[in-house]
Amino acid sequence: MNMARKKRVWYPGAAYHVVSRANRKGHLFRDKRDYKFYLDILRKTKAKYDFSLLAYCLMTNHVHLQIRTKEVEIWRLMHQINLFYAKYFNYKYDLVGHLFQGRYFSKIIKDKLYNLAVNRYIHLNPVVASIVNKPELYSKSSYNIYLAQKNDDLVDTSEILSYFEQNRTIYKKFTETEEINKKLDQEIKAECEL
């Protein structure tokens, strides 16, 4: 029995938490050039379709993105990003077949609290995975852009920092303080594991 896919909710200005996972629990990134190439694809897609990237974290076997769309649907953005990266990866490593595990996960962000929680969750992902003990030590995320330790126009920090009156010290404290909203953190984690 062929069941139709449920259409994703989209409207101009919709924000999403997006997760793309590697197929068969494999790797999406094998070396530094792979991470750089993925970020280049994000830049090119952003230039073509004009969206705001609020946060990212590139893990070895999955990617977290926090995206606010403008006039282009989320599926169009993610199709471009995942298609071009899969072509690059398969060509580089002489592979065939699917790089990504099925469809990407996306959850629409409907309010300020969830927007903040997703941003925090994304930046703490390497800490929770025991890769680093502080989020600023993980170079493959947008966290250091938020702390102004890395300059990059790929990420738009203004929306999230506006909740903290652009004060990066308060933002850092919010992000790194344990159990700010444990229930919401657990909800986001459960959604990402589906």
From TrEMBL:
GO terms for molecular function: DNA binding; transposase activity. Residues 11-125 form the Transposase IS200-like domain. Gene3D superfamilies: Transposase IS200-like (3.30.70.1290). One of its GO terms (biological process) is DNA transposition. It comes from the Bacteria. InterPro entries: Transposase_17 (IPR002686), Transposase_17_sf (IPR036515). Coiled coil: none annotated. This is Transposase IS200-like domain-containing protein.
